[in-house]
Amino acid sequence: MASYLELDGISKKYGDKAILRKLNAAFDEGDLVAIVGPSGVGKTTLLRIIDRLEEPDSGEVSFRGEPYSRLSAKAVQKRIGMVFQNPVVFNASVFNNVAYSLRFRGVASEELKNRVLSILRLLKLDSLSERSALTLSGGEAQRVSLARAMVYSPELLLLDEPTANLDPHNVSIIEDALMECNRENRTTTIIVTHNIFQAKRIAKKVAFLLDGELIDYSAVEEFFSSPKDPRTTSFIKGDMVY
Ligand SMILES: Nc1ncnc2c1ncn2[C@@H]1O[C@H](COP(=O)(O)OP(=O)(O)OP(=O)(O)O)[C@@H](O)[C@H]1O
Ligand SMILES: [Mg+2]
Prior knowledge:
The chain has about 240 residues and is α/β, with parallel strands linked by helices. The protein has a domain of about 160 residues: P-loop containing nucleotide triphosphate hydrolases (Rossmann fold). The protein is built from 9 helices and 10 strands. A hairpin with a 2-residue loop joins strand 1 and strand 2. The radius of gyration is 18 Å and the shape is globular. The model has no long low-confidence stretch (mean pLDDT about 95). The structure holds adenosine-5'-triphosphate and magnesium ion. Magnesium ion (MG) binds next to helix 1.
């Protein structure tokens, strides 16, 4: 049986520079995978290909057995929640920022209200519900971005360094929410992070992107205790120069 999300021979070049080289990977339903790797190796590029914001030069992504070439970008994006490194909020209350993605999907008002309030509670934003999102701190705004992506229960949640610029308090609220969402709703989650400690804290599996491939991809305990590739050992030890 095909995996939930499958990447088959994905290649991507910018100019003459090969970023991804026939990358293969399979992600299981309900998994929580951290993709780690040095700056500039193509982590964001890979997430953007999965979210269909970018097309690979060759190779195919399949989601629940359906190849992307047979689906429109919009159809794929409607099923995926994506959170970028910098918060994306618009000029409306916190409640309406989060409600937007449900209104867009035609969810009825009573259910909409319940779902928004429940996700605001999860991200400890309930007391800010009526505030203008433009007045929020960076950490609060990033929690709103995450709430917007989570509220419609996407089939796949993609996060690109969602806590890179945040203080420990905001990081811990976001990490707890991601783990709870994965545990309670079995939301399949892929998080890109520079931070191997974050990968260790929250992920079930870790994938190491280097030289255009996932050179190591294993259960979190195994990744850290018995890495398969010497380059992983060097990365974990902080010896890798980049
Ligand atoms: N649209 C583009 N045009 C040209 N080059 C690009 C483009 N997007 C990315 N690149 C280059 O591709 C490489 C990989 O970029 P990417 O943003 O995927 O790396 P990353 O692993 O996410 O890095 P970081 O950890 O710093 O965020 C970089 O060298 C980047 O400059
Ligand atoms: Mg990046």
